[in-house]
Give the backbone structure.
Amino acid sequence: MSALDLARAQFALTTALHFLFVLLTLGLVLIVAICQTRYTVRGDELAGRQTRFWGRLYVINYAVGIASGLVMEFQFGLNWGGLTRIAGDVFGAPLALETLIAFVLESTFLGMWIFGWGRLPKRLHLALIWGVVLTAYLSAFWVLVSNAFLQHPVGYEMVAGTARLTSFGALLTNNSLWFALLHVAFAGILTGGFFVLSVSAWHLLRRTEEQVFFRRSMRLGAITAVIGTFLVIGVGYAQFGPVNADQPTKLATGTQLATAQADLVHRFGPGDYRPPDLVHGAFNGMVQSGNLLFLLAVLALVLQIRGLLFRLRPALWVLVVVVPVPYLTAIGGWLVREVGRQPWAVYGLVRTSDAVSAQSAGTLRASLIGFVGLLLILAALDWWLLARTAARGPGDEFLPLPDDAPEPVEVFSA
Amino acid sequence: MTILWYGVLGALLALHGALGGIDYGVGMRLPFLPAPARRPALNAIGAMFLGNEVWIVAGAGVLLAAFPRAEAALPYPTLVVFVIGLVVVSAGVQLRGRVGRGERAFDPVIAVGGVLVAGGFGALFGSLVAGGGWPLLFAVAQVLLVAAHGRAFLAWRSGASPSRWPGLTAALAVVAVLACGGAYHLRHPLTGLVLGLVVVLAAVGVGLFRRPGLAFLAGLVATGLPVVAVGAATYPDLAPAGASTLHLLTVAVAPVLPVLVVVQGLCWWLFRRGSRVVYW
């Protein structure tokens, strides 16, 4: 494989791994915050236990979300020196704002939230998790502002071969931004909903002691999944307009594609401007899968009337095995957005072949093996921990301990 | 505005050295602590662990946006090793607590990760000084400084009076003094030398101060200042981004920085005392 192929492979694999954890982060944090709001405002103790249980899973997932995010952050400078040299002035700024405004606050809030149980006033503790929700979605916003520039460069001018920022407002009103952002947000929300559905379904199947706990969780998960799938599909269709206008080669086939190809040859000189065929396969797979998820979500909600779902074991099994589907669907979507952009790193401005750093193939191969290997190990460990923690269910660790407990006690979930 | 963002970058990297250094220093200590002391050591960082990590993320973000051509000029293998260390410590500590039995197997891995981060960080700014053996020397210095800093932090949080560590302190002082020799290569050698000597003094202070709070404070200086020393002494080597980008960053970040400082301060203040019962 050439240096370019290795760099692209590393970016694709690390981004995909990162996004798997981001999806669940976005969806699950919202569910945790809702449960904690019920607990704080209404004193609903089961909601408090829900907060602890789903929150524990959220924190385990978040750990590898950060770890893979660290790799992403340095990857531009490491492997894509050409891109940062030419366009870094413009697309680097939103990424910096993501770190400086969103991530910093998100991590600090989360650290306080994790350790704040029983130590912080309840309302402050609740405010912290909502702070995490806000900053998590703000993170997604800034990353997409940057990515939207790569899809459809605006707000810049070329000065001596370097892109200089001319209009931040143009970056924020980029056609390629808002529907994509909403699409990602609802994809996260539906993933959180389905995760809760899957884990709850498993416990209901096993007839563990926590039937009431998981029935209530199933309802919350189903509502979340229905809202998420309905809106992700709607916003997805809304993206057709901007994509076909700004990136004519991405989704086109047949004569439309030939026309777009000819047009780009005319503008940019000879070359193949058509993205690989896998984009169409990924797109179709994503759409079918999304529709299926919507159907399952609606059924999961409707069948809970009169508790019918809880007695339908085959239906519960379906909800258990569907757990990887939202993730695969989302990866399909990203393949469309990113591979569909090829051969451009910045559409119409910087080719991918010019964007890569001047490193040897050997160096990039070592980097690929090192980073992807490490992240795969962490992902496997994390999913094993998630499965085990989910299977054990909520403990009764939430109950306050007597004041005369003799020694410093730690109450953490095992 | 270039100076402003150079300064912001330096501040963020210094905070990474000092506050992130707490995380890595404690991580490096883990395998050397007796088993019952390890969980309390991690609880001592507790709520601040995630907050301490944000500085390198913010620093990398500023590097990318304000000095877009600088990162590609850093030595590639060193940067890769540094990032691997960051990932290992970050994920290692967070997942260790959720594993239950077998958690102690994480500790040597976390410690190695801590060495990679501290050493990698030292090697990176050491590479700005000169080539040859200088990055390695700075790497060793930063590893020793961070290790001592971790010990001082644990002593401070547990309230125990720290044992004096003449061996480590002597080694530290020697290495730090040697590193000061690198000032010869720098654009502003006097600046580098003066700041370097402050680091040496702080390093000695970490090992020899009786009061744990003072030792910890010295540790903060000792781990945070080296990158500032190199940065100040090599100014203005980094090529900045265009004025419009720097202007945008300034306008967008200025209102948030006080919030950030307040929130971090709140985090340290709210969790200043250890708790009898720790839910997490």
Notes: Residues 40 and 122 of chain A are 7 Å apart (CA to CA). Chain A touches chain B through 78 residues (CB under 8 Å).
